[in-house]
Write a structure and sequence with these properties.
415 residues; alpha/beta; nine-stranded mixed beta sheet
């Protein structure tokens, strides 16, 4: 990996920005000493040798056909921002109305044009807080900077669409920085969609900073394939009186490791997470959530569900941390899982770490199978076994899928 770093370092953006170069160097050192063995294990699992790694997006002319995007758009009007094989493609993306004063540009440009904002946000990153953030910082070669100005209500969702083309084999480290200024409201969808069975590895970090009295909603839909590996880290830092919701679906991947990290550092913040992971075959999915209550009078609620089939494996670890002075905290964490076969495995670890009095906190986890009596009831009314199981699974996941920004039915699930 050292050889790969030395070979590609000079081609990354921001080589003349001292603070960024230092962060890249520090990130690679941390990765080398703490995460390189884990990275090799992931590459072995998806059969992608280090010698085959390339930061090139391998884009072809046929990949830039805007007519192909129609089927991927949301039914509602939205602002589509397209990445193909890890590279942002402006000619496939929607233009943002200058009158809105919303800033949207590639992170490589924002590092120069909006240096103070970008540097301030990057300075708050804790390199070891989430898996492979260090590697992402060292090798980030793509990403967007999105800034919503004060007192702005953006009615159209921002749709980050990440496409992986049929034949491409690539390794990419994408870093997105979203800043929502005070008294503003916005909705975001991050969608990963492989076209075919291309072998690739994607390491994405998204940071969402919101100022005072912001209302933000972040959706993520992660579709994988039998040859892909994905690491996705979402970091959220809300301001005072902010309301932030996250709706998260992991819909299969040969290897998926996702992390949601939330720091509540101002009073009267409300954070809500609804999540779902689904695996089948020999897929592996791992979801980590961390909600840090660092100040008084904040509330958080997390409901995460899992559906695990065949010989697949899912691992959920959620933690709520309540600091000593964080009185009046209201925090709840629930994980519910459904096993659809004898060989399927689920590991679940909801955790509370509380150092304050006068708090209202709870956590719990369940693991079970489909209700045989319910199956019998449905089959007795002429519904075949496959359809009956789908109905029960659909009912189980509906708490998450019903409110998702993009139509998601159990027929879309890889179970």
């Amino acid at each position: 990996m050292i050889e790969f770093w030395q070979k590609n370092k000079a081609s990354l953006f921001g080589t003349d920005v001292k603070w960024l170069q230092k962060m890249r160097d520090d990130g690679f050192k941390y990765f080398l000493h703490n995460e390189s063995n884990s990275f090799q294990t992931i590459l072995d699992r998806i059969s992608l040798p280090i010698t085959d790694l390339s930061l090139s997006s391998n884009l072809k002319e046929e990949d830039l056909n805007k007519d192909l995007l129609g089927e991927y758009r949301l039914q509602q009007k939205s602002t589509l921002l397209v990445f193909v094989n890890g590279a942002f493609v402006s000619q496939l993306s929607d233009k943002i109305d200058p009158a809105s004063k919303v800033i949207c540009m590639e992170l490589a440009q924002a590092v120069i044009k909006y240096r103070d904002i970008v540097e301030q946000c990057f300075a708050s990153i804790s390199i070891g807080a989430q898996p492979f953030t260090a590697l992402n910082l060292a090798l980030m070669n793509s990403g967007l900077f999105l800034h919503i100005p004060e007192n702005t209500v953006v009615n159209e969702p921002f749709h980050f669409l990440f496409l992986a083309t049929e034949q491409a084999q690539f390794f990419t480290n994408i870093h997105n920085l979203i800043v929502v200024a005070k008294n503003s409201k916005a909705v975001f969808l991050e969608e990963h969609l492989p076209i075919g069975t291309s072998k690739h590895f994607c390491n994405v970090c998204t940071e969402l900073y919101s100022e005072e009295s912001v209302n933000a909603c972040y959706f993520q839909l992660q579709n994988g394939n039998k040859a892909s590996g994905q690491i996705s880290n979402l970091t959220i830092k809300p301001g005072k009186n902010a309301k932030v919701e996250v709706h998260y679906i992991i819909n299969g991947s040969l290897f998926a490791r996702d992390s949601i990290h939330v720091d509540l550092q101002a009073e009267n913040i409300f954070f809500k997470l609804k999540g779902l992971y689904m695996t089948a075959g020999d897929e592996y999915a791992e979801l980590r959530t961390r909600v840090n209550h660092n100040v008084p009078s904040c509330a958080s609620t997390q409901l995460v569900k899992g559906v695990v089939k065949d010989a697949s494996f899912s691992d959920f670890n959620g933690r709520v941390y309540v600091q000593k002075n964080a009185i009046k905290t209201d925090a709840h964490l629930t994980n519910r899982n459904l096993l659809l076969s004898d060989k399927a495995q689920i590991k679940t670890s909801p955790e509370l770490e509380i150092y304050a009095d006068d708090v209202n906190c709870s956590h719990g986890a369940t693991v079970g199978q489909l209700d045989e009596q319910m199956l019998f009831y449905l089959r007795a009314r002429g519904i075949d076994e496959v359809a009956a199981k789908k109905l029960l699974v659909a009912a189980f996941v509906s708490e998450v899928t019903n409110n998702f920004i993009k139509n998601f039915s159990i027929d879309d699930a890889k179970i």
